[in-house]
Amino acid sequence: xxxxxxxxxxxxxxxxxxxxxxxxxxxxxxxxxxxxxxxxxxxxxxxxxxxxxxxxxxxxxxxxxxxxxxxxxxxxxxxxxxxxxxxxxxxxxxxxxxxxxxxxxxxxxxxxxxxxxxxxxxxxxxxxxxxxxxxxxxxxxxxxxxxxxxxxxxxxxxxxxxxxxxxxxxxxxxxxxxxxxxxxxxxxxxxxxxxxxxxxxxxxxxxxxxxxxxxxxxxxxxxxxxxxxxxxxxxxxxxxxxxxxxxxxxxxxxxxxxxxxxxxxxxxxxxxxxxxxxxxxxxxxxxxxxxxxxxxxxxxxxxxxxxxxxxxxxxxxxxxxxxxxxxxxxxxxxxxxxxxxxxxxxxxxxxxxxxxxxxxxxxxxxxxxxxxxxxxxxxxxxxxxxxxxxxxxxxxxxxxxxxxxxxxxxxxxxxxxxxxxxxxxxxxxxxxxxxxxxxxxxxxxxxxxxxxxxxxxxxxxxxxxxxxxxxxxxxxxxxxxxxxxxx
Amino acid sequence: xxxxxxxxxxxxxxxxxxxxxxxxxxxxxxxxxxxxxxxxxxxxxxxxxxxxxxxxxxxxxxxxxxxxxxxxxxxxxxxxxxxxxxxxxxxxxxxxxxxxxxxxxxxxxxxxxxxxxxxxxxxxxxxxxxxxxxxxxxxxxxxxxxxxxxxxxxxxxxxxxxxxxxxxxxxxxxxxxxxxxxxxxxxxxxxxxxxxxxxxxxxxxxxxxxxxxxxxxxxxxxxxxxxxxxxxxxxxxxxxxxxxxxxxxxxxxxxxxxxxxxxxxxxxxxxxxxxxxxxxxxxxxxxxxxxxxxxxxxxxxxxxxxxxxxxx
Lengths: 487, 312
Prior knowledge:
The structure holds two protein chains of two kinds. By secondary structure, chain A is mostly helical. In chain A, 81% of the residues lie in helices and 0% in strands. Chain A has helices spanning 2-36, 47-78, 85-96, 99-109, 114-126, 128-150, 155-184, 187-191, 197-207, 211-237, 244-250, 260-279, 282-319, 325-336, 340-351, 355-358, 362-385, 389-397, 402-411, 415-431, 434-438, 447-456, 460-486. Chain A is globular. Chain B is α/β, with parallel strands linked by helices. Chain B has two domains: 6-106 and 229-283, Periplasmic binding protein-like II (D-Maltodextrin-Binding Protein, domain 2, 3-Layer(aba) Sandwich); 107-227 and 293-308, D-Maltodextrin-Binding Protein, domain 2. Chain B has twelve helices and ten strands. In chain B, helix 1 links the parallel strand 1 and strand 2 (32-36). In chain B, helix 5 crosses helix 6, helix 5 (147-160) packs across helix 12 and helix 6 (162-174) crosses helix 12. Chain B starts with 5 loop residues before the first strand and ends with a helix.
């Protein structure tokens, strides 16, 4: 009985979060746009900025996919079941640290034009996503063919001819997902001193009293993002069925490749951190930062963690509802296609007359869920597909309903996926500057905005201090990811 | 029962904001809750929020790093009159006739350069000269849709008219001026050697110098023999929930102590009070004749031209 109660309570909470963060703000945005009417001047489409944003996002996607290949090879050689906790932790670590830290770290190490740095920062931060997805697919589907191809070719041609024909859907889906994310991103280009379409949209949302103006401005990028995400979803659903026995058979040897994960992480995480630490006296910086911004860091970490947990809880709950999960994902994807600034103003419009939410940190959590809810639903769906259909079928034969089987078998068996998802979303929330710029409350001074300000004001000591403390704050998350991955 | 915390909406740089508010809290024992603005969207975001919240204001006090948006708020009836007794020594041209806002602590629009790379006497004397072919590709300018760069273009529009402003911006674009994501980003591009000149504010140059960068600044002529100066503005929000606390905070923010602190800070603002200028031996460059109200009035047209030319 209590298991039933927990199940229904969890689903109810997930649905309430979805309505609060995705449905209600969307209604508020459309209503407001209709009531406010036309802006005084027609919107002039900044074609050059849009094309540059597309080009940058494409570059970042390509670089992330290329960088993911060694990581995918690690996962492929180890197999999902033998992916040690610490190696899994190392693979996930780049995602858990706030992306702005990389941007500021690489700024000190990589003296290249802002465009190249932006592409590199995105790639060094996001590569674990395609690495894990491709690696698992590779381990289960393409490893025999890859090893056969290795007999007559070097690794790159062996991958191209042996593995790619089987895994192209995964590659494309991951690429489209990353492209969509990068195209809507404001934080990294801003930290690299670049103006992209997201910057333009932040202005439109911040400066115009007419939501319709911001909506119109958002349409080109929203269409591109929605199309990418829709294609990714379609391609993903067409991927070949996994034979789980394959993974078990071939997971015997890992060899030298297990060292690739620490090496990649050392480069992607270590170099920018060393770059930051090298530029100022670290101890003094951290001490000064703790003295000045301890409260801000703790509160920001707390609100971001609440955002991460709420997002994944929502995604996990919705993913257990067979009739609702794809509808919810579609809605969340359309919503996610809107720029962060527009999502922020929608959340504000939705809760303006509800002081108990509007005046407190809860509105920031809702803003984070609205922004990254689609990630939560993707995590929930991944957790659902992480358990074999045979197990689900057994549960059904034993008398469990579809929802109960999803909840008690699929979700319960994939807590590591959910925990890692919550950590990653928390890190995204911590770095989110666009939605946060609008959804702010007096009691929370978001560390993401302070960090950007320190960068702009040349206050390197505090910048480094905050960055290192955020990494320290995320470290337990990386350890936790490793621990839960062992289960 | 604890005193209600006064809520301050401010687009002033967080570093200085925090220092000054902390000092106020220390002196008075009263709590201030701050809502700041993003670096790129300086001022515009919070102004829009004040508009949105007009039926139930959350902000008690508005402190802006510039004047144009404050004037718009005043015109829209979103500010309440308050003549602070400590602002009597502030010249009338930095105070609103209806006491809706008080100005202090000036910044100037400047061109930053690296004296090691570019001799000061080789720099153009007017803004328009920077848009000519010889210079424009070596210039970085912040996104003119935000912050003080927007006020700067609006001032040009007011002084020069549409045709001349459009030609200036168009020349900048055609000749390859670099558009940066904010004034300090423009200065960063200068420090990195990407450009030889950056259109920015005097406080950004002062901050970079305080951090050890080798940058200097000149004050190009706006066309009327003067430089555009931009005051901080402080105002009481109409319908503030804590009006008494708000007035107390305003008295502190517009005081000579705060203006002196800002002048001595890394942002090196120029005081508007004559006595302070003499005390600190600080004089701003000769100011342009353009009025703050004119700048605010010309802003929408200036923004449209920026979209049609520079940000095409």
